[in-house]
Amino acid sequence: MSGFGPCDLFLADCPARLAVEVIADKWTVVVLAGLSKGPVRHGELVRLIGGISRKMLTQTLRHLEVHGLIRRHAYAEVPPRVEYELTPLGETLIEPIHTLTEWARANGDAVLDALDARPEPAAHSD
User: What is the value of pTM for the model shown?
Assistant: First the structure.
């Protein structure tokens, strides 16, 4: 796709679809939110984000860096120090993430209630 004009979000070669896929990853929103207040080290992010493994955090950070949403800065120190921070592009996601977070806070119980209200699956007899 040439990048000119609007595209159909459902088409595989639409840049908007790629952007949605990047931010729809399980850990992306949480990691971006964790970086929203300024540069953070890897270990700090692990502590800040409950349930994420170091390996998954590293993969998520690399993914976000490749797509231009965060920047990695390695300092020439002993011991080595690496910090991650949002790029200007990544910063444009903070307000939408805040809106999504507020929606989740307001509706989290309703989502769980709907999950709990599901009928039990019928037993299969073959």
Answer: 0.78
Task: Give the alpha-carbon dihedral of 48, 49, 55, 59, to 10 degrees.
Answer: -110
**What does the domain layout of the chain look like in residue ranges?**
15-116
Quick: pLDDT tens for 69-95.
Answer: 999 999 998 888 999 999 999 999 999
Q: Provide the CATH number for the domain formed by 15-116 in this structure.
A: 1.10.10.10
| 48 neighbors 40 (Cβ within 8 angstroms) | yes
**Residue found under tokens 């459902």:** 10
For the cut 50, the answer to whether the pLDDT of residue 1 exceeds it is no
Distance CA 110, CA 103 (A): 11
**DSSP per-residue codes, 17-86:** HHHHHHHTSTTHHHHHHHTTTS-EEHHHHHHHSTT--HHHHHHHHHHHHHTTSEEEEEE--SS-EEEEEE
